[in-house]
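BUG: 3D viewer hangs when loading the predicted structure for this chain

Environment: internal workstation, default settings.
Expected: structure renders.
Actual: progress bar stalls at 90%.

Input used:
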Amino acid sequence: MFDVVWVGDVLLADRSQSCLDRHGYEWPFEHLRPLLATDYLVGNAEGPITTRTQLHWPDRPYNYNADPVAAAALARVGFDAMSLANNHALDRGTEGLADTVAHLRTAGVRSFGAGVDLAAAQAPLLIDTPFGAVGVVGIGNAFRHGQAAALGIPGTLVITPETIARGRELALAAGARWVVGYVHWGGTYRPVTDKQRRDAGWFARAGYDLVIGHGSHTAQPAETVHGMPVLYSIGNCAFGSFGRFAKRGVPGHGLVVRTRFAGHGLAGIELTPIVTDNKVVHFQPRRCDPATTAEVFAGLGSAVTHAGLVPQPPDVDR
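Structure tokens produced before the viewer hung:
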């Protein structure tokens, strides 16, 4: 088996800054380390890693940046790659995006889903396994005007039927045996939207093997769409804001997702619920207790068994 672990939004900044300054940038992951131990670890960097502070969108209420030391901390925690295909990637402009890519590269962490132009943004992440490569397409909604990468224009890879199909084509051309969509979409603190379900159909029709979503800050249900497992949102991981869980009347839970690849294909998906509401865990997310775990699984829908496994059949031609 070869395990790839996926987590949701990561931000080592904002309201958690005083804790980071006091305890260090690895401190938020202290209770999660056993869950994050794996062959390959992927997360979503929800905000640029840069010392730049000028706001790119001054009219937006939430803008972030993390100190460059965050990149090295992510590497020490075990992250191998971070997606930048999200609504905060350009909070400090295109220069901040370039800084993020450079700081992650220096730390030995690969980035994907955004870049200096469309070609860079749509370049797939390739994860080599003993059984074949996993291609990962980092992609998300166009949450903000001017965010989308284009020819000669920095930005993120934005969801359209064409970019979804092209993402898989590029992954296969690069040698991928399986292709995963790692997707930032949906509404914050909201249930699964009709648009998410429509877009999931685009991924399925394009031939993806799996979609793992994030962006709502909460755990959303899982479904199987035309034979393709979809985790609509795995919520937050170590996210440095307080969040609006109580105000929106939703629980602050996320998921750590472990995908297991074998010779016959994607052998299974293991889900571990975590508590991410920082008014409860004080910027140190941790596993849910057994009773809460059962509640989270009950809310994920019939595609998820009580053990947290979404089975995947052996490879089939699509």
